[in-house]
Design a protein that fits this description.
This protein is mainly beta and 424 residues long. It folds into three domains: 157 residues, Galactose-binding domain-like (Jelly Rolls); 160 residues, Sandwich (Jelly Rolls); 68 residues, no CATH class. It has two helices and 31 strands. A hairpin with a 2-residue loop joins strand 2 and strand 3. The N terminus and C terminus are likely disordered.
Length: 424
């Protein structure tokens, strides 16, 4: 089992790190209040530079910052280009914003990029320490696309800073950046039998990505994401491709959904891949921490193949999303997701199984004629050592039973020492 425990990707920091690479921790029902970011549209300038904005980055890379003409809704926007890259990242970022503890916020921006990017929130607490959480991993976009993420602040928070970073060669352009307080819908588990996966067939688009889905990953690899025009049962599916990997993984994930702790759930999807892949449940607990549940490894398959597993939501589980992830060089395409409460399907009528142990003579002399008379099935377990020889079926009779078991008209199954005979 190769549990996909997410690595700390800001290794240069000496602060405490909290990483939750997949989005959708909170389901936001409405944004409220004004934009808390000053000059979120980047239209206001001071000395030829955008007011209330900063340039940042770390590591061994060549980064260039530009305040460019043309934007999503106005006349200006922010651009950063990384022309050579070994490690680190580069970003424009707004000034820190004072926020309230235990409060829900929504971050949005419009972006264009030539490579995948990351959205990260930095929490500074009242003691001056920093905690980081990954909110989203937007895919490359040739036209303006929106990314939206929600989060709840810790109890001891002082302020937050949001980074939309590029960590590789390419260009990232930002505009219309906003941070708002939000109303979060409480986690209410839906009725049994409901498919919890939003946009489970991936048919509904939100720009260049499927609605209620986001791509994500971690580590050193060249992960690429695609929203395809073909699918298993419909016209759309999602794909992850890696051609080079040192560590980490990549996956698409749907927005996390409310569940009931202690209940059993069944997850399934259809997939095609040229390498083995892994399926994990990411569980958000009631205290805001995250727990991962390994669901299994999916074998490589050139044709659509169904993966299915049943698992129990951990104690104190509040929300769950499930990721089918790629952790090695190769490709993975997925579609038609399902997550729902597991219900045991009972029999339509009462059933009784008849089993005869050991090699008693009375089985052949008394039981089998009755079974044959009434057309009943039974399981006979042949033992070469019991009962005592005087009461044991003779070798000739045992061979006869085995011969009958091989005849198609008896519809029998011989497995090891267990012989099932269906008498007609």
């Amino acid at each position: 089992m190769r549990m996909a425990i997410k690595k700390l990707f800001f290794l240069f920091l000496t602060f405490v790190i909290l990483v939750t690479p997949l989005s959708g921790v909170d389901r936001v029902s409405a944004e409220t209040g004004p934009n808390l970011l000053a000059n979120g549209s980047a239209e206001n300038a001071t000395n030829g530079q955008p007011a209330d904005w900063n340039q940042g980055g770390w590591g061994n890379n060549t980064r260039t910052f530009s305040y460019v003409d043309g934007g999503h809704s106005g006349s200006k926007s922010l651009q950063v280009t990384v022309s050579s890259y070994a490690d680190g990242d580069a970003k424009w970022y707004a000034n820190p914003v004072t926020v309230a503890p235990n409060t829900a916020y929504t971050y949005t921006d419009y972006y264009k990029s030539t490579s995948p990017t990351e959205v990260i929130v930095q929490f500074q607490d009242t003691a001056g320490a920093y905690v980081y959480r990954s909110l989203a991993s937007p895919t490359a976009a040739n036209d303006w696309a929106q990314t939206m993420s929600s989060f709840t602040t810790p109890a001891n928070v002082k302020n937050v800073t949001i980074f939309h970073v590029i960590a590789g060669t390419g260009t990232l352009q930002l505009d219309d950046v906003a941070l708002n307080t939000a109303t979060v819908a409480p986690p209410v588990a839906p009725p049994a039998g409901t498919n919890l996966v939003p946009n489970n067939s991936l048919e509904t688009a939100n720009g260049a990505v499927p609605a209620d889905w986001q791509a994500g990953g971690w580590g050193t690899n060249d992960r690429k994401f695609a929203y395809l025009g073909t699918g298993h049962a419909g016209n759309r599916s999602v794909e992850v491709v890696m051609t080079a990997r040192t560590d980490g993984d990549a996956s698409w994930a749907f927005a996390s959904q409310p569940v009931t702790s202690g209940k059993q759930y069944t997850f399934s999807d259809y997939y095609k891949s040229n390498v083995a892949t892994e399926v994990d449940a990411k569980v958000t607990l009631t205290d805001g921490t995250t727990q991962f549940v390994y669901l299994g490894t999916a074998v490589a398959s050139s044709d659509w193949l169904r993966f299915e597993r049943t698992f129990t939501a951990p104690a104190n589980a509040a929300r769950i999303t499930v990721t089918h992830l790629l952790y090695q060089a190769g490709s993975l395409t997925t579609d038609d997701y399902n997550l729902g409460e597991y219900t045991i399907a009972g029999f339509s009528r009462a059933l009784v199984s008849l089993t005869f142990d050991d090699s008693w003579r009375s089985i052949y002399a008394n039981a089998l004629p009755i079974m044959k008379k009434y057309g009943l099935a039974c399981l006979i377990r042949i033992s070469p050592r019991s009962p005592p020889r005087s009461l044991r079926l003779s070798s000739a009779v045992q061979r006869l039973i085995c011969r009958l078991g091989r005849e198609p008209r008896y519809r029998t199954l011989l497995v090891r020492m267990a012989l099932t005979i269906l008498q007609s």
